[in-house]
Amino acid sequence: MRELFTELKRRKVFGVSGRTSSFSFKGMNTSIPDIGRSLGVAHVLEGSVRRSDDRLRITAQLVETATGFHLWSDTYDRRLEDVFAIQDEIAGAIAAALRLTLVASAQGATSEMEAYDLYLRARTLIYGRTLEGLREARTLIDRALALDPDYPPALAASGELWMLLSDSPTSYGDIPEDEANTAARALLRRALALDPELADAHAGMGLLFMNLNDYDAALAHLERALAINPSLTSANHWHGLAHSRSGQMLKAVESGRRFAELDPLFLTNLGNLLVELGAIGAFQEAEELARRIQRSHPDRSVDQWGFVLKNRGRLAEAVEHMERIRAGGDDRRLERLALEDAYYRLGDFARSLEASEGFREPQAAIGLGRDDEGLAAGRARSEASPGDFLATWGLLHGLALAGRHQALLDWVAGRSAGPAGLDTMVAYDFSYGGTLAPLAVAQRGLGRDVELAATLEYWGGVLAFLEENGFADGEFAFAQASFHALSGERDQALERLGVAINRGYRDPLLARSPPFEPWWNDAEFRALVERNIALINVEREKLGMEPLS
To answer: What is the pTM for the complete model shown?
Structure first.
């Protein structure tokens, strides 16, 4: 039934609800009208497959959701090797029942039926997006490829699994990201060499190029995948994510909303849409979406909601949300990252260090008066994982906070070609160009006026691009405030800092924030600092913490 579902989607003649949403009702006693309302569809295809030795009995029926009327039903007794022909036969019968004309086609078949079955089971687990499920899927795909090493869909799935099981903050496993990307590239290239029109392989290449920060190439592959199969879950999901990471947030939100209509129960897309809505300041819509997710997935917590709460300044709720996820046994790096940052913003530097993923480690240690320890840890993490953009961000901001200007410039000189090279090391949706702030702080501190002007010119262009593309949350307003401060524009800097605080930005060390050093004793700046601390203390009180002074 799952591959028949894929065949119906691939024919492009009528809309088919997403795979994840469609199969979420398997084994549940949900009425056809309720399924129709949940998925927003007019018809439901249901059926079963029974196997006896080398024979299959397939039953299928098409039901109108509004009336429960059976438009069509049939039973097929076939030999196992006829399964691909059966898919076309059933798809054609459904089309006739709906008075549509379809063109038959087949794709990606293998003569090894066991390999085909293993692939289908793995694909279901991949869409589930849990660490346990992804590891099981990898085992199944390895078995499929042992049976048929040239099976393109299994090769593409293997490449996808390597990346999903990497130690990237947005992945689920612990394979070093560089190793995962190298293995994935080889597998995906082989899949495309065998089948250049395999949508899954183009989608996988899209994810690979996103990991490599080549968003033009990523979007080209993802759009090719969608041209082949407009309903492909992975391509739709990563298409929105590529827009988000390349700074095109309005397009990301548009893509995420559209895909949510196509596959309304695919949790990964809904979680990313939460973050994207938060980034453009659409917090009410994000909160409504979070409630909808809770209704449809009462047994699952969405880690991205913790990010939205944190960035909105609702730190106590963010901590409670992420601690619930951690207590439930979900140890994904993304959860630990959000928890580390939330504790940091609360001024609980010790707990931030306990949950540390390198993002706030140097700054949290500095907050405890352990500057050298924190910077050494940040440097070690960055050197061990050069591609870890969170370690890069944390080290640079730690060096700036500690006033180690020359050390910061020395580090940058060995790793990037100027401001543009540094900024591409960190994805927009995590930094808003913010890696350039510590660079500009060091240049200003050492009197490197020509270099500072070049950094600010580039950074100003980045911020203008991001603002044009919808960024409007507190984090972005703080990046704008830092830019104006480093440009020597006091009034604009303090105005944007006030906006940032209004939109949820919180920093327990704001009083010594490096970009604002010329105004640390300025009365207006001090008033903003005090307001920021007062708002942090409101959140600390909710958690039973003593107030910051």
So the answer is: 0.79
